[in-house]
Amino acid sequence: MRPRHRGDNLGLLLLFCQIFQVGFNNVPPATLVTLALNIYLFLFPLKNLMQVCISVQNVYFHKDWSRILLAQFHHADDWHLYFNMASFLWKGLRLEGRLGSMWFAYLLGVFSLLTGVVYILLEMALSELLNDASYNSHCAVGFSGELQFKFLTYFCVIATWIHFLVDDITHLKGHIQISFFAISRSVSRLPTNLSIFHL
After folding, report:
1. What is the DSSP letter of 150?
2. Phi, psi of 197, rounded to the nearest 5 degrees
């Protein structure tokens, strides 16, 4: 593991400010451990992003199953980390207080795995449905409290536009691609021409 050296890391500084504002003693344990793990892996990533990002190509075809979990805890840049973790901090404060630390930690673990699996299944379905192999190479990283809602939105988009399949496949393809990319926070082009979704 090599430390990450990127610019001024203003997003990371703001995240620490938010945690200090809340107070370490006020952050429930499962939320605090998850925040610490994400920050640590941002500063000292296990591998570079192209080796941990999740895609159909890497997970299903190349059988690199570890990416299902690793992608959840790596972030593309300090702002990606900040927005995901700031959101998670406030959700964790509320939800862990209501559910209890053990149940909250269990749900985090289950949803971290399920999010990766659902992402792969959706990308495979879009690739088949739209006859567009580029969905197999979309690579995603990030731990987001809104991920489950994004995937529900993907399902809704597919269900809403599926009736256009019979009438006009080009029409369907255009609308699903627009919706799919609009839901994602941002798309970065990588040197290998793969996209990393900031989730």
Report:
1. H
2. -85, 130
Q: What is the mean pLDDT of residues 153-173?
A: 49
Rounded to whole angstroms, the Cα distance separating 108 from 26 reads 19
pLDDT interval class at 155 (50, 70, 90): low
- CA nearest to 30, candidates 110, 80, 112, 103: 103
Return the amino acid letter for 31: T
Confidence class of residue 65 from pLDDT cuts 50, 70 and 90? very high
pLDDT at 119: 87
Q: Which amino acid is at 147?
A: L
Q: Do 120 and 61 form a contact (C-beta atoms < 8 A)?
A: no
Residue 187's nearest CA partner among 154, 144, 141, 126 is 141
- Cβ-contact 119, 151 below 8 angstroms: yes
Partner residues linked to 140 by β-bridges: 54, 197
Instruction: Look at residues 118, 116, 97, 101 and name the one whose alpha carbon lies nearest to residue 34.
Output: 101
Model pTM?
A: 0.70
Query: Which runs of E-coded beta strand occur in the chain?
Result: 139-141, 187-189, 195-198
Question: Helix, strand, coil % (nearest 5) of the chain?
Answer: 70, 5, 25
